[in-house]
Write a structure and sequence with these properties.
This protein is α+β, with helices and mostly antiparallel strands. The protein has helices at 4-8, 24-33, 70-77, 96-104, 113-118, 133-145; strands at 16-21, 39-47, 53-61, 64-69, 81-86, 172-174. The chain has a single domain, classed as endopeptidase domain like (from Nostoc punctiforme) (endopeptidase fold (from Nostoc punctiforme), Alpha-Beta Complex), CATH 3.90.1720. 29% of the residues lie in helices and 22% in strands. A hairpin with a 2-residue loop joins strand 3 (53-61) and strand 4 (64-69).
């Protein structure tokens, strides 16, 4: 049974959507991080020109940082792995829209493939010139959290719990 419809209206702008996929790149990320999570995105309620809202993800993917309808991501991703929804911790709930707005300032920014590859050898600091998945989310929260320029970007698997501090450690499996 599909539970996406059950969770959809409870997901807020700023919440975290995580992916555990089985494709080649995801397997490399999973091997390096020793965790099943291979990709992260921020939930974002987008209003269209007619006033109708659509639940999207804001995420850095190979063609850049863009909003993608979450229902499309669900349809594509679920046959290839698992998706999880992590709520923001209560103290950050009022800041989710501001974090999303900051991410939108960088919409279209190229994907940081070099940074992703360098992650195999060393941890990377925040660099808004090119963005990979969790880096784009960290950028969204950077002003709110007062992160220093040399902030070490967490792996996707480190975005929950005390590692990053914004999201609840226990997520809901989206099926």
């Amino acid at each position: 049974m599909n539970n996406y419809d059950q969770y959809r209206d409870r997901i807020r702008t700023g919440d975290l959507i995580q992916f555990a996929a089985t494709d080649f790149i995801s397997k490399i990320i999973r091997y390096k991080t020793k965790n099943a999570i291979s990709h992260s995105a921020m939930a974002y309620w987008m209003m269209g020109p007619t006033g109708k809202t659509r639940l999207c993800t804001l995420e850095s993917v190979i063609f850049g940082l863009y909003p993608i309808p979450l229902s499309n991501r669900t349809a594509w991703y679920l046959p290839h792995g698992n998706m999880y929804w992590h709520k923001m911790r209560p103290e950050w709930e009022d800041d989710g829209a501001n974090a999303a707005a900051k991410m939108l300032e960088y919409m279209g920014t190229c994907y940081d493939l070099k940074g992703l590859i360098w992650q195999a050898f060393k941890r990377m600091t925040l660099n808004p010139a090119e963005l990979w998945c969790s880096e784009s989310i960290v950028l969204g929260w950077s002003d709110i959290l007062g992160l220093p320029e040399n902030y070490i970007v967490p792996y996707p698997s480190e975005m929950t719990g005390d590692d990053f501090g914004v999201y609840e450690p226990q997520g809901q499996l989206i099926t």
